[in-house]
Amino acid sequence: MAGLGGQPILILREGARRERGKEAMSNNIMAARAVAKAVRSTLGPRGMDKLLVDTIGDVTITNDGVTILREMEVEHPAAKMLVEAAKAQNDVVGDGTTTVAILTGELLKRAEELMDEGVHPTIIVQGYRMAADKAIKVLEEMAKKVSTEDRDLLEKIALTAMAGKLAGAPDVKIAKDVVDMVLAVTEETDDGKKVVSLKNVIVEKKTGESMDDTELFQGIIIDKERVHSNMPKKVKGAKIAILGTPIEARDTETKAEISITSSDQFKIFANQEKEAIQKVADKVIATGANVVFCQKGIDDLAQSYLAKAGIMAFRRIRKTDLKKLARASGGNIVTNLDEMTQADLGHADLVEEKKVSGAHMTFVTGLAKEGTVSLLLRGGTQQVVDSLERALDDALHAVAAAVEDETLVAGGGAPEVELYLKLREYSTNFKGREQLAVEKFAEAMAEIPKALAENAGFDAITKLTDMKSSHEAGMKTGGLNTLEGKVVDMWAIGVVEPLRVKTQAIKSATDAANLILRIDDVIASKRTEQPPAGAGAGMGGMPGGGMCGMPAGMGGMGGMGMPPGMM
């Protein structure tokens, strides 16, 4: 609403809500901090799990930060920014999402304290940016080199990434498998840089047996069985046809009706259809293929023809698997059978169907091109297998980042403690209010080791003091051993992380916090849809009692201590 010559002018549509200044900032900060608080207890190897139930009743038990944030279905726009920052961390690095959420929440908490003391948000944003730049430089100075020859160190990275995401201690065998998979898909560019193509890693899950029965294969696993029982179960020296088109009679381009008035006419029609299907099958047989992977359907009659020709065929193959198969076998994905030639076939030493946990799976090994690996994950229940898959994904990305960047830092809260000390020292270089922002940034960094200590059941202040003392005494890699509660050299016990995980976490958290701090005006239009019958109205009749029709809760986050007014 604005006034012109004493006459009120309506700017926003009727029913819109606007929050300005301190109220808008406080609500945004409160919402983001509530999300950060929800995942804080999951940090570290002894973090707690969350049980998440979706709208259809499916249960997920995890302490993986990005999984929790995705399943929470956050509604508040400022809280969504924090979730997006965590997702960005996951996309870029694949690990460190919980750290991003906690750090963002702590930066906002301390920014609010500064604003209460009269420090302008712009000054805080500026101070945070300078502190983040300095923190990244300090981390780069702390980093140590690693190469693909250091298998033992790479396995320790995988174990560190998986710690806390599995029931019990991480499996050393799986850590070895992770390193094998990453090295198998690592290529060196012309300028000497290493590039890891994790898209060439295939992970298939099957319940049954135990985690120890997880197997690594040099090749491709296809979760399909042959389409006809008379087809061979095993083909050596496979010549593979990879089809993106169905093996069936083509439909006519125009619709037509056929009137059959006698059995002879029906027989003629059936024979014509049979001949059409046989022609299609013959096109595949003529190429000399003895294995067929088809993205679409294979007609029942065509299955019989292929089986008589001794061809092993599979249908309804995922397009992603088809692409991996084409790349690894040296074949081409054929979309027109009329143009298919022998040159389009891929090659493999062996294609074999095996029975796994009562279901049939197909294994393609000895492929023409190396660099494709598959892992068959096993676990007693679906929840165990899913949890193992999430842990494996973190480990794969962590080892891949270490291989590409060839740099590591210690874990266990050691880098954050060193950053706390260095940033406090760095803050003395400023005379203005930026000094306060840099100091608050340092305090926020210290919350990571404090959360590690809290989640392990120790006194956070005492353990943080012990870690600071070790760093001041010269042990720059001193961190918390969460099993014993002692401050030890993280390098000595093999708790290490890729440098990229830490630097990206600082960048993501700082960007998210600064973005939220720069918002001083929230304008939201009223929803046009009508509230459901019987729904309560709050805030001037808006549905759900939330801001501009948004739900008062955050998608199942009740009980998190979120004040109703922040939504």
**Total of DSSP H or I helical runs spanning 4+ residues:** 16
The overall pLDDT, averaged over residues, is 82
Main sheet attributes: strand count, strand direction, barrel closure: 7 strands, mixed
What is the H level of CATH, i.e. the homologous superfamily of the largest domain?
GroEL-like equatorial domain
Task: Specify Rg, calculated over alpha carbons.
Answer: 30 Å
Helix content: 40-55%
**Which fold name corresponds to the CATH topology of the largest domain?**
GROEL, domain 1
What is the correct CATH architecture of the largest domain?
Answer: Orthogonal Bundle
Number of strand elements: 25
CATH class descriptor of the largest domain: Mainly Alpha
Q: What is the CA-CA span between the terminal residues? A: 23 Å
The coarse overall form would be: elongated
What fraction of the residues are assigned to beta strands by DSSP? 15-25%
Q: Low-confidence parts, pLDDT < 50 over ≥5 residues?
A: 535-567
SSE-based structural type: alpha+beta
Q: Count the domains.
A: 3
Would you kindly provide a written description of the structure presented here, covering whatever features stand out?
It is a single chain. The protein is α+β, with helices and mostly antiparallel strands. The chain has three domains: 2-144 and 411-528 and 547-566, GROEL, domain 1 (Orthogonal Bundle), CATH 1.10.560.10; 153-218 and 378-406, TCP-1-like chaperonin intermediate domain (GROEL, domain 2); 219-369, GroEL. 44% of the residues lie in helices and 19% in strands. The protein is built from 16 helices and 25 strands. Strands 11, 12, 13, 14, 15, 16 and 17 form a seven-stranded mixed sheet that branches. Keywords: ATP-binding, Chaperone, Nucleotide-binding. Pfam families: Cpn60_TCP1 (PF00118). Belongs to the TCP-1 chaperonin family. This is Thermosome subunit gamma. It comes from Methanothrix harundinacea.
